Amino acid sequence: MSHNSTEKLVYMANQIATAFAAQKHEAAVEATRTHIKKFWDPRMRSKIAEHVAHGGEGLQPIAREALEGLQAPKAA
Amino acid sequence: MSLVHEIDYGTPASKSEKLVTLTIDGMTVQVPEGTSIMRAAMEVGNQIPKLCATDMLDAFGSCRLCLVEIEGRNGTPASCTTPVADGIVVKTQTERLKKIRKGVMELYISDHPLDCLTCSANGDCELQDMAGVVGLRDVRYGYQGENHTKLGKDESNPYFTYEKSKCIVCNRCVRACEEVQGTFALTISGRGFDSRVSPGMDESFLSSECVSCGACVQSCPTATLNEKAMYNIGTPEHSVVTTCAYCGVGCTFKAEMRGDELVRMVPYKDGKANRGHSCVKGRFAYGYAVHQDRILKPMIRSSIHEPWKEVSYEEAIQYAASEFKRIQEKYGKRSVGGITSSRCTNEETYLVQKLIRGGFGNNNVDTCARVCHSPTGYGLSVTYGTSAGTQDFDSIEESDVVLIIGANPTDGHPVFGSRLKKRLRQGAKLIVVDPRRTDVVRSPHIEAAYHLPLRPGTNVAIVTALAHVIVTEGLVNEQFVRERCDWEEFQEWAAFVAEERHSPEAVEKYTGVPADAVRGAARLYATGGNGAIYYGLGVTEHSQGSTTVIAIANLAMATGNIGRNGVGVNPLRGQNNVQGSCDMGSFPHELPGYRHISDDATRAAFEALWGVGLDDEPGLRIPNMFDAAVEGTYKGMYVQGEDILQSDPDTKHVSAGLAALECLVVQDLFLNETANYAHVFLPGCSFLEKDGTFTNAERRIQRIRKVMAPKNGYADWEVTQMLSNALGFPMNYSHPGEIMDEIAALTPSFAGVNYKLLDEMGSVQWPCNEKAPEGTPIMHIGGFVRGKGKFMLTEYVPTDEKTGPRFPLLLTTGRILSQYNVGAQTRRTENVVWHAEDVLEIHAHDAEVRGIRDGDFVKLDSRAGSTSLRAVISDRVAPGVVYTTFHHPVTQANVVTTDYSDWATNCPEYKVTAVQVSPSNGPTQWQEEYENLSRTSRRIAAE
Ligand code: SF4
Ligand code: SF4
Ligand code: SF4
Ligand code: FES
């Protein structure tokens, strides 16, 4: 896997989405969103939010939908 | 202080609930049915002379010293083998008995070297004691007859000697090796007068099957099997009860001392995890604590290319604090963080996370559990509601079917392994899911009913296939599921696993496991009685680690194997305090007691007591820290007692991350590999030098007790406290007990825990609070902690780490009995005689096509990097799979592991790496460069 961080975050988000993909679509999106909110540090969330804002290349549909509904983190 | 003497009752306790009343020497005694007369007598304080009996072992009845008289019965039966009976009247001391006993002792003594004064067991010898007890004053046969006094000594084992001439052939050692340890390494060879104990086929101890657990030494009544330390130092004069600092079994020991020198560690019978047993590490491998490599003075340097400079604690602490402040000023509050240690105590771990959250003002705290059992925490908490195993170790005694997945208990958790093997010899059935044929699959008197040798990385597919069989063949415990779990979620799950694509036949293609074996195993687990699951890092260290934990939790719920003795889901946790470090809030998203940092009420409680505001956002996890460091947003780190460079995957990436830090503070016993990149070194102290608690894999909180002053001047918690004070976040504890009181005040599952309770009870399993004042041995009795048990769907997703033409083999990693993790401790003990280097196990077929012979040096390449090590041809691994350990820094197996990780927790995928193996003649370029770096980085400037 690449160490380029945006690419890595996309990979991680997709991995999470895939893990929940067997559930119904709504539930999978919600579970992915909650998971990222619960476990990702703010800089990781800001970075992926930026990526989504720029088209979110490489994100699978569940991951994209989850991230689109994710609030941007507050500053420290 | 004096020696802690444990009573030897002569024979094990009976478990019967029926009581029997008898009279012994005029005293009325009531004991459980099945108790021996010997034990009953000891209960009222009458010690019947004995030599071949000890309460760790079943009675044997060979020495004839323990004879008694029973009114109305003929002869003089042996009290160790004769059970009590209602109404009998027993005499333990009569003229007749005295005479027989004297005669027996005379025979023993006439054949015994009488060098008592210079014998290493002088004062600690049961033969000597018994001679006194029976009043032996003279030996009629003289000492001139034929005897064994000229037989030599076997000193091959580094820790104990076998002095044949002193053997009285009581058989205790042989039985200890069989009954307690389960290795069957000893036999009595020869006959009659010539009979002697012998390891294997008259081999030396070192070359035999012996695993050096020490059970035979412990049971030997004479100096025949004796610790070398007793020979070299002398007998101990006081002892302190403490806990092993190696693995998650958490064995209790008596540290037997002479002054402040540790003479030996003796397993403690009252220890509830080990019940008097031990393994080679806890029993013998403590020499690292006084090893010359230990660093005892603080050191600093402004660049890792400079030599270290020894300074005072004050200077080192001030320097570290000012650096952290400078970095935060320049790069922001969240640019620093730290790592707590699963080797350190609960109190120390708690303090480090407190320093980070309160002193640094962020949540960038993580712990090495990230790289081992974080998926356990996640998986068990979402399904059951608690991030921990469900049973105590005693529970194994009531299991009927044991399912082991991705764990190697006889090497990784040896004392539990012995207890497991004992249960299996009593008839419990065994299923092993593991790519490698581990020892427990087939060993003396044990044969697994099923071994499912799956391809690494296909755990989810196998466990879901087991569920498929259970659901489609109608083996679900519906009553349990209806009562205890969410029925709707169950139905969704049942429909999912019942799909044909999850059948054993369908998954066989990629798991490589024959479908009928999977079916047989599923039926056995579901219908064989109490089914218990034990699993290890072979489950968690995968890109789907958390999914497998969830799949396991589903399996136990579907079959009703939760909430009573003998069943359950049990992670075999690696390090001594990995459970505790997780409990203590070492994860970046959780405060102590597994409460999310975003929970306002919980945060408020901590803020009130700590007097500081807390960040409500989760912090970085270890792999994220390295990424952020490489990227330039993470610049300073405080690492207590972990060697992340050696233990974490993808070494090159880790080293790039560490090299990018402006201030790395390492607190450790040794200049470990991580310290090569450090700017401040704070000396650590060993578990013998401080007070505190560890929490083992059973959630058991146990005391470690200080037996000597810290050689480096301060206990680890004191150093953290100094650093915190220098950062301007005051801490003023005068004893770890006060830290535990604070933990209890803030953590509901620890509310009832304090040092007084631990001293009284010996240990306690959390939750321990008002509802469970004496702790909780078995969890989820009558209901799950989260309410209804939650079934979750577990789709198998193959790892992206795939084999192909360049990297056609799968590497999986593990460890061995005598070494511990990165080996920083065990490599500094004589345990190296069993494992001087890491080797690569490879199947004969794979070796042959590559022109590799047994013992050749080979190069191991992956997408991440390459290393070289010696190859060993082995049929324990299947063709296509290779295996190695990671105990030695020269090999650095993690140079080849990748940074793929578990989807939920980022726990690295250590267990699957696509590799190529080729002949080689020496170290790789990386190994040479790293060797150079280590050499320059470890220089210490002359004063
Ligand atoms: S040390 Fe343990 S394994 Fe070795 S012979 Fe003694 S009991 Fe058996
Ligand atoms: S070595 Fe010790 S325990 Fe073993 S038979 Fe001889 S005296 Fe008994
Ligand atoms: S089994 Fe674990 S806790 Fe027990 S002695 Fe061995 S290393 Fe120590
Ligand atoms: S102790 Fe009973 S026969 Fe040896």
UniProtKB/TrEMBL annotation, chain A:
Keywords: Oxidoreductase. Its EC number is 1.17.1.9. This is Formate dehydrogenase subunit delta. InterPro entries: Formate_DH_dsu (IPR021074). GO terms for molecular function: formate dehydrogenase (NAD+) activity. It comes from the Bacteria.
